[in-house]
Amino acid sequence: MSDINLIKNKIDVVDLIGEYIQLKPAGVNHKGLCPFHHEKSPSFMVNRERQSWHCFGCAKGGDIFSFVQEIEGMEFREALKYLADKAGVQLTNTFKNEAESSLKNRLKNINYDASHFFYNFLLKMESAKDARDYLQKRGLTQDTIDNWQIGFVLEQWDLLTQYLLKKGHSIDDLVASGLTIKRDNANIATKQGFYDRFRGRIMFPIWDVHDTVVGFTGRVLIETDKSGGKYVNTPQTALFDKSSVIFALNKAKKSIKEKDFVVVVEGQMDVIACHQVDMTNVVAFSGTAVTAELDLHKSDAEQQKKQIGLLKRYTNNMSMAFDVDEAGEKAARRTISLAMSAGMNVKIIQIPEGAGKDPDECIKKNKEVWFEVVKNASEVMNWYFSRAFINKDINNPKDKQHIASELLDKIQHIPFAVERDYWLKELGHSLGVDISVLRDDLVRIKSEEKIPVEKKNFDKNIETKTINLPESRLNELVKTFLVLFLRFYDFIKDTPNLFSIDLSLSTGKYNELYEMLKSRYNKGNKDISNFRDYFSHENQENIIDVLLMQGEKDFFGFKENEAKNEVKILSKRIYEEWLKEEKNRIQNELSLAESKGDTDKVDELMKRFQSLS
Ligand SMILES: [Zn+2]
Q: Which domain does 452 fall in, by range?
C-alpha cells in the first residue's frame, strides 16, 4: 500500500476536520461553517464513507491532504509529513528525503536543537544559577519549566551558533532561522562574523498549534544599556509567521474547545502562571511579549485579524485581561473591536485595585481572586460604559456630550436592534437624557458613517472568490442529470433511453463522465463501483465526490419514483437544449460558409440541419 493510502486508512476525515471546526451530522454527511470563506449558514460538507469534503460556497474540496494544505498553508510534501507523523506512519525514503530536506523542516530541526540547548543550559550549568533563582523567585515550579521547555543562554557572542554548527547545521540555515545574525563583513567559508541573536536571556520557545517550535522569546536576565530591549523575539522566518501563531494555543486548544471559551492575556508569563494553577484555556496573542509594539500599524491589525480567525476555530467566546495603563487599554480596544467584528462574544476581565497589576501578579498574591474575576468577567458594553464615565462630570454639558458620542459609537455597532435599544435606554438613564434624543443622534451617526464595518475585510487573505464560472444551460442540466444518476443509480440503472445526446466532441466539464457512464449503461454494464477510482487524481478533488455530495445535499429526501421521473424529465430537457445549441451552431457556420461562397460546405451543413429537425 502506498504511503498516502496508509495514512488515509489511519486518519478519518471527519475526525481530522472536526479538530478545526464544529461538524454536525446532516444526513449521510457532516456539515459545518466553511473555514475558507465567510458564511452564516453551513455549506461545508464532509463525507466519511468517501473520506472527502467539499464546500458549496467557495467550491473548495478534496481529501485529508488537501484540507491540511489549505488550512495550514502547507505544501503537499509538508502536509504529507505532518499527517504521516500524526498517523504514526513511517514514510518510505523518497518521500521522507524530500520532506526532510525542505527549508522549513531544516528550520524545525534547528529550533528543536536550540530549544534543547537552552533548556539543558538552564538545568545543568553552574553559570545558569542566577537564571534558575530568578525563575524560582517568579514562582515557576520545576514542572512548569519542564513543561514549557524554558531555557537560558549566557551573555556570550556565539555560544549557540557554535553549538548548532557542531550539530551539523549549515551557517546559511542558522541565519535563516533567525537565531544567528550575520555581520556585514561575515565570511561564510571561515564562518567568521556571525553572532547569536539571543544572549544573556531566559528563553521561552514559541510553538505553533502542532507543538512545533517555530521561534523564541528571550527575556533579558539583567537589564543593561547594551542588552537591547527587555524582550527579543525571533524575526519573521520561513517557519515563524507571527500572524499564524498564538502563544500556548498548542497547550490550550483542547481546554478551550471543552470550556467553549478562551482567556486572552497579555504576556507569556501571564499565560504560564495561569496554566500552572490549572487554568488551561489561556493564551496570549502573537508571541510578542508584554512590550508589544503599540503604535498600531495597519499590518498589526491584519496580523491580529488572522490570529482571531485562528482562535475562532476553537470557540466564539473570548474573555480578555490586559494591563491597566493607557497603552494596554488602547491595544485592548483594538483587539476587542476586531474580535467583535469577527463575530466573537467578548468579555473583559478586570483585576481589582491592589490585587496585582497583571494576571501573573494577581495569581501570586491570591489565585482565588484571579479565578473569581475570570468567572465574573463583564460584558464588553458594561465595560465601555464604566470606562466612559471615569473622570467625567455628568453635570458638565461638554463631558455629557463626550460620553454620549463615545458610547453611541459603540452602540451603533451592535448588530441586534433589541440589544441596541437596551443600551440606548441605559445611556439615557445614566445621563438623564431623553431616549428619543439619543435615538436621533444614533440615526445621524449611522448615516454619517458610510464606512462599512470591518467585517467585510475580515480575513481577506483567506477569503476566496467563488470560482464557479457561469456554466452553459446545457452544462447545468447535464450536471443535475449526473447528480441524480449517480445518487440514485440503483433505482434508475434499468430505466431505458436516459442518455439522449452525444457529448464526445464538446468540451464541457462533465462530458467525459457523461460519455463514460453512457457507454457502460448502453453496454448493460451495471457495475460503477470502480468508477470513482478512474476520476481520482492526486491532489485534485474527485468530480464524482462533488456530484455525490451535491446529490446528498439537494435530493436528500427524494423517493425512488421522484428520482426516476426527475431523471427522465432531465434527459428530455437535455436533448432539447442540446438540439437548440446544435442548430444555432450550424446556422452560424452556414452563414459563414455562404459568405465565403463555399457551396460544398453549405450543402453539408444543410443536410445536417435537416437531420436534426
Ligand atoms: Zn467555503
A: 389-461
Tell me, yes or no, whether 487 and 599 share the same domain: yes
Mean pLDDT, residues 528-548 taken together: 81
Report the percentage of the chain scoring pLDDT > 90.
39
Please give the pLDDT value at position 292: 42
From ligand 1's centre to the CA of 54, what distance in Å? 8
Domain tally for the chain? Answer: 5
Average pLDDT rounded to a whole number, residues 154-178: 94
Give every CB contact of residue 432 below 8 A, 6+ residues apart in sequence. Answer: 394
| Centre of ligand 1 from the C-alpha of residue 20, in Å | 14
Phi, psi (5° rounding) for residue 153? -140, 140
Q: In CATH, what number is assigned to the domain containing residue 156?
A: 3.90.980.10
* Mean pLDDT confidence for 432-461: 64
Tell me the CA–centroid distance for residue 541 and ligand 1, in Å.
14
Structural domain contains residue 170 = yes
**pLDDT over 60 at 287, yes or no:** no
**Residue ending a domain, choose from 358, 385, 412:** 385
Quick check: 202 and 150 in contact, CB under 8 A?
Answer: yes
The alpha carbon of 57 and the centre of ligand 1 are apart by a number of angstroms equal to: 5
* Distance from the alpha carbon of residue 531 to the mean position of ligand 1, in angstroms: 27
Tens of pLDDT, residues 308-323: 888 888 888 999 998 7
Any idea what the Cα angle at residue 24 is, between residues 23 and 25, rounded to 5°? 125
Q: What is the rounded distance in angstroms from the CA atom of residue 88 to the CA atom of residue 231?
A: 37
Whether residue 91 is found in the same domain as residue 131 = no
Residues, CB-to-ion distance under 5 Å, ligand 1: 34, 36-37, 55, 57-58
The rounded Å distance from CA 32 to ligand 1 centre is 10
pLDDT (tens digit, 9 = 90+) per residue, 414-443?
Answer: 767 788 889 999 999 988 888 888 888 888
For residues 150 and 141, give the distance between their C-alpha atoms in angstroms, rounded to a whole number: 11
| Amino acid occupying residue 216 | F
Task: Cell numbers for 219, please give them.
Answer: 527575556
